[in-house]
Structures are given as C-alpha cells and as structure tokens.
Amino acid sequence: MNPRLPYVLLVGAAVIIFILSCMLLSRGKRSASCESHPRNVEKTGSRSQSLVFADLTPEEMVQVVRYLQENLGVPLVDASRAFPSDNCIFSVDVQVPAKAEVLQFLGGGGARPAREALAVLYFGNQPDPNITEYVVGPLPTPAYHRDVTVQKYGGKVPYHRRLMLGSEYEQVGMFVKTVAFAGASTFLKEVFEYDGTNVVFQTAAPHGFQSGDRRSWCIVFQNVSGFFLHPVGLEVLVDHSSLDISQWVVSRVFYNGQYYRDMVQLESAYVQGRISVEKVKKAPRDGDFSSMKPRAPPAAMFPLQYEPQGPRYSVRNNHVVFQAWSFAFGMSVNTGMRLFDVRYQGERVVYEISVQEALSVYGSNCPGGMSTRYMDGSFGIGRFTSPLVRGVDCPYSATYMDVYYLAQSQVSRTTKNALCVFEHNLGSPLRRHYSNLQSFYYGGLVNSALIVRSIATLGNYDYVWDFIFYQNGAIEAKVQATGYVSSSFLHGDGLRYGNRVWEHTLGTIHTHSINYKVDLDVGGVKNSLMAHDMAFEMARAPWSPEQQIERPRLTKKVLDTEDQAAFRHQSKMPRYIYFAANSKNKWGHQRGYRIQIVSFAGEHVPEASSMERAISWARYKLAVTRRKEDEPTSTSIYNQNDPWMPTVAFADFINNETITNEDLVAWITTGFLHIPHSEDIPNTVTVGNSIGFLLRPYNYYDQDPSIYSHDGVFFTGEQDFTACEVNSVACLPKKASCLPNFPPFTYDGF
C-alpha cells in the first residue's frame, strides 16, 4: 500500500466536502428582489387632457346631490329607503361632452368643455309621476341644471318604465312573505319547512306583457349558498303596479306544473289532497352541490407571472400608456367599462369603445323562466362591477384601481379594486419564423399584450370584460361568462328547455348577446366602409391553354348606405369589412382598420315579438351608421321595464343614410347559445364561453409596426445565440432570476 494514499484520500474528501458545502450554501441563499419601479397611479386631480372623459369623483357627486336637493323645489328621499310614491335620485354619472367639443380641445384649438353630470330622478310624489334626466354643471361647483329628457327621448319618460329600486325588491319580497304566504301556512310549513328565513326570491323581467304592466314572477329558492340552483317549484306573480303598496295583489301562483288563482287556492288544494307534492330535500347552508368551496386541499402553487424589471406601462389618473398605445378609461354606472381617445403611435384610431348592453333570453316550462329577458344594462353593469381578487381575477402583480359610483342612494359608493391593468405574456409568439432553407436563422416576437379588465356580477352571472392591446396595432374586446346558471324546477316536459343538472334542477337554455359601440376614427374622423372578400374564377393556364385553373380573386365593394352596412345574424357578411381612411399607405392602398367578430350567437327573438324592437340591436351582428350626438346608445335602461314601447329602438337608427366619407360608428353584437349541462355545476367555466371582436390594422401601416418592438428576438446559425447582446432571451437567467415583490393579500369585497 502506498503510504501517501491515505493523505490523498483525506485531501480529496476535504475538497469534496468543501464543494458540497458551497453548493448547499448557494442554494440556501435568497435571490435578490426584482426591481420595483414605482407605479404611476395617481388620484384624479391633474389637468391632463384625458380628464375630459374622467368619471365623477366622490366630491363631485356630493356637490351634484346637494345642488339637486337645494334647487329642485321638491323633497328628495334617499332611494335606498324610498317607496314608489316618493321622489328620489336614481343615479348620477358623468355627462361626456359632445365629440366635436372634445376633439377641438384635444387638438389644442378649443377650450376645455364644461364638466357636467347627468342625474336621473324618479318623481313619484307628484300628480304626473315621471322619470326626468337633468344635466348639472359646471363641476365642481354646480350653478345650473337643464331638463334633457324630451331632447333625448322625444317626450317624457312614463313612470312605469322606471327600474326597480333595491327598496322595491325588498318591498315585493316582504309582501310575498307577509301577505301572500299568509294564505298558505300549512302548505309552506309541511312542504318546505318554511320558517320565514329559509327561502329567497329571484324576480323575472320584464314585468308583464304590455306597456304599463308591473307584474313580477317571484321564483322561490332555498336560502343557501348558490341558491340559483335550488328551486323549490313555487312561483308567485305579484302585481305591484300601484304606487300604494297596500294595493299590491297576487295575480297568480304556480307550483309543480299547476297554476292557481292565489296562495289561498293552493292551500285549499293541498289540504284536500288535490295536488301533486314534490318535496325537495333541504339543503345545508353551504348549498352542498352548489357550494364553491374547493373539494380538494391546496397543493403545489400554480404558476405566477411577474415583471422582473417593474411594469412597462403607466397609469396616471384615467390615462394609460403602454409602448405605442395610449387611451383614457372610465366606468359607466349603467354599461360598465369604456375607453376613449385610443391612440397608437400618437395617432387616434378609436374615439370610443363601450359596452352597450348584455341581453339574456331564457326558455323554460316554468313561468318565471320562460318570461325572462334580462337587459343587464338596466340593472347596472358598472354599478355591479365587483372587487377583483388579486392572483385569481387578475395577476397578483397587476395594477388595481377603485371605482366610485352613485346609484340608488344619495351618497357615493366605492368598489375597491374594480379595475385592473396588467401586461400579459400570452405564452405564444405574436409572430415567428425558423429558417433552414438557404440560410439558418430564427426570428420571433413574444406576444405580450396589455389588458384592462373589470368583472361585473349581475345576479347569477359574472361577466369578465377585457380590452386587450397588442403590439401590432390590434385591439381586442372580449367578454367571458362564468358564475351560476339560472335554473327552473324540473317537472313535466322540462327537458325540452334544458338539461337536468341535479335532482330537481333544470338548467334552462338561454342566449347571451353583447352589444358594443365602436367609434373608429381611422386616419381622421371621416371614413368610408369597405368590404373585401374572395371568389373563385375559372382561367385558362397561359402556358397550357387547354388546361383550366380555379383561382381565388379579390372582390371589393363600397358599402355606401346604412342599409347595406346592416348585417343580420343569419345573413352572409363579407369576411373583410373595414373602416377606410381618406389617405393611402406607401403601397397605394386606403388605410383601414378591419372589424373581425368572434361569435357563436343563438337565434334572435322573432321580429314579430311585441318586445323585439326594444332589443332590435340584437338583429345585427354588425351595423354601421352615421355618428350622431342624438344617437349615443343603442338602447335605454328604460327598455327593460317597457320593451313594448321602447324608449330607444335601435332599428330606427338604420334609415339608409349615406355613409361614405362620414363620421361612422360600428355597432357590434356578439354572443353565444348556452345549454346548461352537468359540468356547469356548481359553476360555469370561462373556457369556451369567450366572445368578442378585434380591430386589426388593414393596410393602415406600410408594414407590421411590431417589427419595431423592443421584445423582438433574432439570431442566425453563425452567431453566438447564448450572448445577451445577440439574443435578449439569453439574458433571462441574469435579468429575471429574482424574487417578485408581491404585496400582502387583501380583499375589501365584503
């Protein structure tokens, strides 16, 4: 044995121990924190131009309410506790100035438009009850108000068209419990174990069959979590048309497929054993199958997205800047999120994108379900925007903003974290090419886009609203539906109207239709509407005349009237429709932005229906009209409760006017048919329930503008693609090997 061998082995062991110790120490060392550039999030208050579109501040709302209380000369009751016979403020929102004034101001040649509010008031305590709309200004110190009701709607708005206040819903519910239910105490106790607290009501809308009706089906559910899936088979029709609630009456009662004059008749039939009783198993408070509580414990953490060098966008007041994009945002109390003055590379491409309406039309063999046509704008898409949960509703590191609104109250309310803005790596290339012919190279661009999001919870449904800005100059408007399905009690031929999703629960068939207003200004205010498509033509092969070739060719058409530009849902529409500018790109083509719709809409309500005109916007997947200040919206919140004599009928907007070289608006309807199924229990998923549209540059630029993105990657086979100066992705181990600075989790939704 070599005497040196033990020493060699000892030295070798020491070296190995030293190396292992270094490795363990390096593994235990905490990575550096990522850079955290301060986010530009400031409260409204600066005089930046985007503030011309800004929502009202809580202070401005206070001033408007105070002004109305002091200057209308009538008592105003707080809407949260008002009776139908009271006067009250329904809502206060910003009055967006006329476009011409705004453009003059933004262009630097005009004064800042007066800042004003739009106040909607219910006057129930007067000889001629009505709804009146006032413009109040100037803010922040109001000095005038003017009645704009007749100017906007061509006449007074009858009082029966008013939206139901929260207080009226409570009053109807109390009437059912204390007056209607008093006539069937035995039935309720023995069939439902009714104790005064274990049922809740959902009200169908619209409320009747003709103008002036205010009769609501109150559908009874078990009072548990996810009650929408727990119908008990009882529905009560309440006539609450009288302004005197002591005059309200029960018009009809429905139970398990049979109709009764009132609860007294139902009680009598039950006591005499003349009805078929279907007892529903009492659900626990958590709803059991309808509970959203996870059925599995937490495990490995899901992937997270973070910004290793801080956010690459800024938010100041109501203004967002991201790379070449800039825009102003706001939140209408009725219609939700909206954008103004959208610019790319400093040039305005869109003046306004806004949601107009979200419609759901239901089918059922129960009265409440079969008569439901919810127009969610009337309930308040903006009002019911819900607080976002960090890390689930939006990425954890997104920028979150509060929203303020005043509706059905004399004081403003705050929805915390109602909007989020974030840059999102979609995990796929925006464009790429790998070459192994002639030369070897790779070129690509990560598809990183900016997303502005809000989520509105309207009863059972949750709508995820997105506006997405891509690096190639495209904009996407997208909505995803989730939440609970609405259900009916399963009886008789119920399976004609949906699928059975639990023992007594019928998931009822329904359609979703979403309408948007898109005021494109492509290369200026004046645009024309162009249609490009394809057709096959037969041609002789020039080099072999005896042979024929079927070749696609480009077809072109100018759509020069509103009638030509109104495309009904089942009609064929050119696949390339775009707003064309009066200027051309380098290659001699009219610069344009194309409208591309993503939709799986169900059938529209037959036009013979007495209420169809109120939702006539839904006839069309696309309709382009001249922009008019007196046609600001495709519908009205008052259409919900009087669809038979609609306050605004979109069909009247289309009157064959010329739309060549005019200021144009695109009204886009997208939607999907939903036939609920067992996988909608407990909750509908967003996968497959996503619809919307894209605005894509079409010959607007001389080449793809994303070629100038700093995120581009290019290297050849002859380069050292592991070097940072050649390939920025190679720098990730250095630049992105950091720990994100996640703030503590908080939630203010309750």
From TrEMBL:
One term of GO molecular function: primary methylamine oxidase activity
The record's EC number reads: 1.4.3.-
Concerning PTM, the database record says:
Topaquinone (TPQ) is generated by copper-dependent autoxidation of a specific tyrosyl residue.
Q: Where does the sequence pass through the membrane?
A: 7-26
Q: Which GO biological process annotations does it have?
A: amine metabolic process
Keywords associated with the record: Copper, Membrane, Metal-binding, Oxidoreductase, TPQ, Transmembrane, Transmembrane helix
Q: How is the cofactor bound?
A: Contains 1 topaquinone per subunit.
Q: Which Pfam families does the record associate with it?
A: Cu_amine_oxid, Cu_amine_oxidN2, Cu_amine_oxidN3
GO CC terms, sorted: plasma membrane
Keyword Transmembrane present in the record's keywords: the answer is: yes
Domain named Copper amine oxidase N3-terminal: which ranges? 162-257
Q: What class of enzyme is it?
A: oxidoreductase
Q: Which PANTHER family match?
A: COPPER AMINE OXIDASE, RETINA-SPECIFIC COPPER AMINE OXIDASE
Family classification = Belongs to the copper/topaquinone oxidase family.
Would you tell me the protein name for this molecule?
Answer: Amine oxidase
- Its source organism is Struthio camelus australis
The organism's taxonomic lineage, starting at the top: Eukaryota, Metazoa, Chordata, Craniata, Vertebrata
